[in-house]
Amino acid sequence: AQSVTQPDIHITVSEGASLELRCNYSYGATPYLFWYVQSPGQGLQLLLKYFSGDTLVQGIKGFEAEFKRSQSSFNLRKPSVHWSDAAEYFCAVGATGGYQKVTFGTGTKLQVIP
Amino acid sequence: EPEVTQTPSHQVTQMGQEVILRCVPISNHLYFYWYRQILGQKVEFLVSFYNNEISEKSEIFDDQFSVERPDGSNFTLKIRSTKLEDSAMYFCASRLREGNYGYTFGSGTRLTVV
User: Is residue B106 within 8 angstroms of chain A, CB to CB?
Assistant: First the structure.
């Protein structure tokens, strides 16, 4: 069964600092991988996704993620964080077969300090 | 960009009452899903629906839950007799076809059972 681990429950960074959110997945084949962002009380917004090809994926709002098969990781990065990036971030893995349900990690809550 | 629309955005219901959450998937999509997020927890898969039948469901999706696509445009989740623990954000999602290229989430319905 597929699974996702986000080891950091809560991260605090200063505005303007770089950011890396960790994600490790477990899946028997090459997975579909996603990062979603959720502001309090809001829905899920897709930041970026990986299906195949270039392992460095660019997303919206200046985010990028790198798929590393050898490490089963899909870490999210941003070179300079803005106060508006404060939110909860979810990594997710999608099955490539069957009816392709998505399994989410437990999320990382990002706090941005001035 | 096409959206998945969910109504209402927030619903309050009394314990034991039936509730129907409504979703309008993207018009040419073929696969439909419901996910649930209890406050402060991760997003969990409930059910997938394809070709007018349930294709996969989780252990959460017990006999109190049902889904329906009554008219070719709406996709509903019914909870027959709500419990306090059903309070959560419910997300609808839809997908075009094989591959997760068109996997889109709605903005969610927050269900509060009192």
Answer: yes
